[in-house]
Amino acid sequence: MTQTQKKIAGLAASLAIAGTLAFPALTMATDALNTNDLGVGAIGSSIKLGSGDIRQTAARIINVALGFLGIIAVVIVLLGGFKYMIAGGNEDKTAEARKLIVSGIIGLAIILSAWTITSFVISRLVTATQEE
């Protein structure tokens, strides 16, 4: 391909991307949507949205995410221990297993400290913004 052909191909690709991005905006440029357009009116009151506090919901989500990360860190430590057991005295394999174990323990320490910090911040946020 020559330089001119590359420039033309680049221009065509750029125009195609711009057209693809602009096309939905042009087709959706009609009236604003209302609840009947989305089918919410047909469903009626069967939709149950949460009425809990958003701060507590965020705290629950963070706790679940940190719980999954904790499980992953424990699995890494267990994998390192398994590799250490089956190393058979090989120095390279035992060094790799030790690295896995240390990495898992460091990960657990980071996850526990993150959980402590977020628990403290969320509890302070909840107590500071409560109505009396």
Overall description:
The longest helix has 39 residues. The model has no long low-confidence stretch (mean pLDDT 82). The N and C termini lie far apart (73 Å). The chain has five helices and no strands. By secondary structure, it is mainly alpha-helical. It has two domains: 44 residues, no CATH class; 76 residues.
List the helices and strands and how they pair.
Elements (H helix, E strand, L loop, with lengths): L2 H25 L7 H4 L1 H4 L10 H32 L5 H39 L3
Helix pairs in contact: 4-5
Features:
5 helices; 79% helix; mainly alpha; flat; 132 residues
Q: Rg from C-alpha positions? A: 27 Å
Share of residues in helices: over 70%
Please, what is the average pLDDT?
82
Query: Would you list the SSEs in sequence order as H and E?
Result: HHHHH
- Low-pLDDT runs: none
Supply the helix-strand structural class: mainly alpha
Instruction: Count up the helices.
Output: 5
Query: What separation lies between the terminal Cα atoms?
Result: 73 Å
Overall form:
flat
Main sheet overview: none
Total count of strands = 0
Strand content: under 5%
Domain module tally: 2
